[in-house]
């Protein structure tokens, strides 16, 4: 695909960033778009692989036909490229911005550390589709007369709702917050994805007949049992929201917070909304002029770092209990799988100090206020090494070590009470449903996304939403033309 000798003739190029000194002064996206010609050259690097691992099980969870649309872009056929991309991915402008791109890890050229710039090309296709008017409502030719409710409007709920609406069903999406998008709107900072992209998709879906009911906390304002009585099927896409317990002494001090209330607050500020959230209530948290410590090494921790710098933090230190990974992986041992290697996010590159193989022993303070974090080095089994304790000054600390399952109130409280849905055996208590028909133990109740599989990537949520939509359509109509 692409130009047969392109990978030999053309160097890998990806979008550049604004300098860190400039981008930390605002919350807007800071990537610098490439010209169409530059993107076409990058698409030309896609090889004619015998087996394209980029869209196999190790690469793209939604099986984007990457070589196909790279070839179309290389040949200047952007219209066909977006049609191809939309055939597998409802929201390529989301994944082109916030997916970590396992497809590039699986690219054959990654054996030489020069994978095709798949993520850059994908975002360019989606953005050009907006410019050319290809992202517009595509309402169904006829209605089925069936009503489907979707609980939650994150990427899984949005993908399922769009697919079901296009199949002709009367789809109603119930969202607890004041605007749709779930944690993609309220959890991911605007400097990674500006929220007008979500608004455009909501507008498109409304034009296709999907109804959004915001400010409705299902399980509190409207019982699940009532939804089941009013609809032919109900799909639960509530996400994974319960912070994983850190059990660190001193976590009750003023100045110690879970990561999500902090991120949600700032996203609501940027969006012009009151900072108080239904799910993440908290008093105002501002990092301006503060010494900040972030516990955790994942994407949420990086989002806290970038947000703190933009608020004017004096110093940001990230603590990671894992050992510092190697700069380069052993390709023959791990390719085409996701490799453990040293990665530096754009937020970390803005000036964060990173401590590896360090355990957080306790938060310490005076008069109930956080003043520092007591740490120590750990061995390969994560056991403290005697004599290595040290204290880092901290006015604010954010715990970002992941999520342990769906929220315990609202929907899950009702499902645990009167309805008695079956959950998995893990401590996370995800709703039990397989990845073929997505049925729960309750008749006509389905589950998809993080509430079923546990915390994961946006691309996995889109996949599960699409597959659940197919399963529901098939159950309601006896057959389905929706793709899995």
Describe the structure.
The chain is an alpha/beta fold. It is built from 18 helices and 15 strands. The strands form 4 sheets. Strands 5-4-3-6-15 form a 5-stranded parallel sheet, sandwiched between helices. A 5-stranded parallel sheet has the order 7-14-8-9-10. Strand 8, helix 14 and strand 9 form a beta-alpha-beta unit. Helix 4 packs antiparallel against helix 5 and helix 13 crosses helix 14. The mean pLDDT is 94.
Number of helices: 18
Average pLDDT value? 94
| Total beta-strand segments | 15
Rg, alpha carbons: 23 Å
Q: How far is the N terminus from the C terminus? A: 25 Å
**Percent helix among the residues?**
25-40%
Q: What order do the strands of the largest sheet run in, or round the barrel if closed?
A: 5-4-3-6-15
State the secondary-structure class: alpha/beta
How do the helices and strands line up, and which of them pair or pack?
Elements: H1 6-9, E1 16-17, H2 20-23, E2 31-32, H3 36-43, H4 66-74, H5 78-86, H6 92-98, H7 102-106, H8 118-131, E3 147-151, H9 155-166, E4 170-175, H10 183-186, H11 196-207, E5 211-214, H12 224-230, E6 233-236, E7 256-258, H13 259-270, E8 291-295, H14 299-311, E9 315-320, H15 331-334, E10 353-356, E11 358-366, E12 369-377, E13 390-393, E14 396-399, H16 411-419, E15 445-447, H17 450-453, H18 458-477
Parallel strand pairs: 3-4, 3-6, 4-5, 6-15, 7-14, 8-9, 8-14, 9-10
Antiparallel strand pairs: 1-2, 11-12, 12-13
